[in-house]
Specification:
NAD, seven-stranded mixed beta sheet, methylmalonate-semialdehyde dehydrogenase (acylating, NAD) activity, alpha/beta, methylmalonate-semialdehyde dehydrogenase (CoA acylating), Ald_DH_CS_CYS, EC 1.2.1.27, 16 helices, 2 domains, Aldehyde Dehydrogenase, Chain A, domain 2
């Protein structure tokens, strides 16, 4: 039995009238588990019109009341945490523990939105000139939209709409068509939290829906997470249409391993950071750079990776699940083959891995290359699979140069026992998010997710204070009152002497 996924337009769940039907498949065996009718242009228009109308009243709702909606929402998310994670695991193939982490990291942003009142406070200076005061207000933009990827169907939507709506905006969410059931459940709970009709819209679809959001003048801001090519398209098209855009794109994250690091900690962390979630995360460590004698640990990392076993979402012994689709698997396998042909040594090859009884699933076993160079495809491209590339450097300076020459700047880490080496690395590295003895340094929501270079297009980043600035406009008022006559009248006698 397949599930019919629904849109949420103008406060009503609807199957839609679109003739194009998108099938949602279980990555473990590629059986169809759900279907969704891609939104028509008219349905996208209806969602935009509803959000635009709802903004007129929602922006006037006191900030404390908006925060209370978020308080109820984060409570419902926690109450239904395992249910959401189960839906997510079944449609993404993630293990249950990984799925729970996806949901929880989104809940943390919803919690942060509960504190929106203090985040929206403006600034005041009295007497900037004689009898003149200046102060600022933070006001919402209007209708905002989010376009989200398949790899984190709970966390990334929750990066976006709770803060945007708490700031007083209305929001249209267009999630990945590959796993739309999780976002639908998030929206159902938001309605249950008491959000007024029209404040949040959910539309499923393809490029037709995306292009409408990018071109319609009612949309004031676009948030996007996805691949490099699409991110560039979203940013250019959105800004050409005079919208604010934050577009989080690809990555190629390096971990620099110093010879004075704790070897066992390095081994343990490199395994999880490289193949966890089947490598399908923009903060995955896909390149390990071994400095000096640290290269002697490579065989032990290979040995640890060889023990890792993918499996079904409810298999408690599985380290990760399948990749999302047959096309994704084929791309990973193609890059593995290119790596071999281009001269890298494939010391661990997961190309032929299968799970008994689920041979038709999108499985890729842990894979590891050594003798990788910067000219190779497996180094230049984001593989988005459970593949670790190993490189060597003679010094920390050489490793820093290698990382800084990458066109991407999403995340990086260094493992070392030296405070001096760590300080030098964090200061000189041209990457937005740096971990010191932490493999995947995703910041908590009171900071912001700060990718650099080709990993991000825009100015203000996701969640934290930067997201509040992205979803709001600042109004500055300068006022002057002239004399005591301005306060005269019934019950307004004031002695100004």
């Amino acid at each position: 039995m397949t599930t019919q996924v629904k849109h949420y337009i103008a406060g009503e769940f609807t199957t839609g009238t679109g003739s194009k039907v998108i099938e949602v498949t279980n990555p473990a065996n590629n059986s169809v588990i759900a279907k969704v009718n891609a939104a028509t242009e008219a349905e996208v228009d209806q969602a935009i019109a509803s959000a635009k109308e709802a903004f007129k009243t929602w922006k006037e709702v006191p900030v404390s009341e908006r925060a209370r909606v978020m308080l109820r929402y984060q409570h419902l998310l926690k109450e239904n945490h395992d249910e959401i994670a189960t839906i997510l695991a079944k449609e993404t193939g993630k293990t249950f523990e990984d799925a729970k982490g996806d949901v929880w990291r989104g809940i943390e942003v919803a919690e942060h939105a509960c504190n929106v009142a203090s985040l929206l406070m403006g600034e005041t200076v009295e007497n900037v000139a004689r009898n003149i005061d200046t102060y600022s207000y933070t006001q919402p933009l209007g209708v905002c939209a989010g376009i989200t990827p398949f790899n984190f169907p709970a966390m990334i939507p929750l990066w976006m709409f709770p803060l945007a709506i708490a700031c007083g905006n209305t929001f249209i969410l267009k999630p990945s068509e590959q796993d739309p059931m999780t976002p639908q459940r998030l929206v159902e709970l938001f309605e249950e939290a008491g959000a007024p009709k029209g404040v949040l819209q959910l539309i499923h679809g393809d490029k037709t829906a995306v292009d409408k959001l990018l071109s319609d003048e009612a949309i004031k801001a676009i948030s996007f997470v996805g691949s490099v090519g699409v991110g560039q398209y979203i940013y250019k098209t959105g800004t050409d249409n005079l919208k604010r855009v934050q577009a989080f794109a690809g990555a190629k994250n390096h971990c620099v391993i110093m010879p004075d690091a704790n070897k066992q900690q390095v081994i343990n962390n490199m395994v999880g950071a490289s193949v966890g979630a089947a490598g399908q995360r923009c903060m995955a460590i896909s390149v390990a750079v071994f400095v000096g004698e640290a290269k002697e640990w490579i065989p032990e990392i290979k040995e640890a990776l060889a023990k890792v076993r993918p499996g079904l979402w409810d298999d408690k012994d599985a380290a990760y699940g399948p990749v999302i689709s047959p096309a994704a698997k084929q791309r990973v396998l193609s890059l593995i083959e290119q790596g071999k042909q281009e001269g890298a040594d494939c010391v661990l090859d997961g190309s032929d891995f299968t799970v008994e009884g689920y041979e038709s699933g999108n499985w890729v076993g842990p894979t590891m290359f050594t003798n990788v160079t910067t000219e190779m495809s497996i180094y230049k491209e984001e593989i988005f699979g459970p593949v670790l590339c190993c490189m060597e450097a003679d010094s920390l300076d050489e490793a820093i140069t290698l990382v800084n020459n990458s066109p991407y700047g999403n995340g990086t880490s260094i493992f070392t026992a030296s405070g001096g080496a760590a300080r030098k690395y964090q200061h000189e590295i041209e990457v937005g998010q740096v971990g010191i003895n932490v493999p995947i340094p995703v910041p908590l929501p009171f900071f912001s997710f700060t990718g650099w270079k080709g990993s991000f297009y825009g100015d203000q980043h996701a969640y934290g204070k930067q997201a509040v600035r992205f979803y709001t406009e600042t109004k500055t008022i300068t006022s002057r009152w002239f004399d005591e006559g301005s306060v005269s009248g019934p019950n307004m006698s004031i002695n100004l002497k």
